[in-house]
Predict the 3D structure of the following.
Amino acid sequence: MLNTLFLLPVILYFVASALQISALVFKKDVLKKLALIVLAASVAIHTAYIVARGVAAGRVPMSNQFEFANAFAWGVAVLGLFFRLRYRDTMQWMVTLCAPIAFLIISYAAQQPREISELMPALRSSWFVLHIGSAVFSYAGFALAAGIGVRYLVIEKKAEEKTLKQMDRLAYKFIAFGFLMLTVVIISGMIWAEQAWSTFWSWDPKEVWALITWIVYAVYLHNYLRMKWRGGRMAWFAIIAFIAVMFTFVGVNKLMSGLHSYA
């Protein structure tokens, strides 16, 4: 039952992506509406899966690589759908970003072991939900900002200035949100680490790369706010910065061992 409930959003995110891309190619508004409906259904079913897995596990299901990747994909879809509904027709293109990104991330999750296991002793803490939940939405914000960066570069030469400014501003908002959430991740992680391992900072690979990612996005925000950088260079910055996020998420787990190897 759980496996079926998991596979449904995988399929639906793909269908929503295909419908939205087809709408752009054939310029059919009805396909855009169908894509939005399918995306909303995907989020609803995906939410139901997360709740069902949480009930089956007796905990918040975000403790290993599969569960975090699954929650990451859900976070991307939720943020994308929220902004699409919030700004209505002015952001129909948001489905073009969030549905494919959610599909790619959940496809990665599908390749990970899906067995439900007991929490490691170090994870049994009241800080767990805040720390991991903040990471989910932090990564989701950064992923959507990178997607906006790609779209910006693709349409830069033919789009109206108003559209480009909207995208530039929205990428900044996603990164500011992601940066705030990442700050919560690091601070809550430090407090949790002191309780679990009697040290606020152990230079664990995951901790180091989380800090590197935080610094990279701090540079982005500094350049955006103080240096007044805009446009293409910031689109490239958003894309390249996301590499640090993905290395923290996947690369550290695959290539380095440490206290966070289970994540």
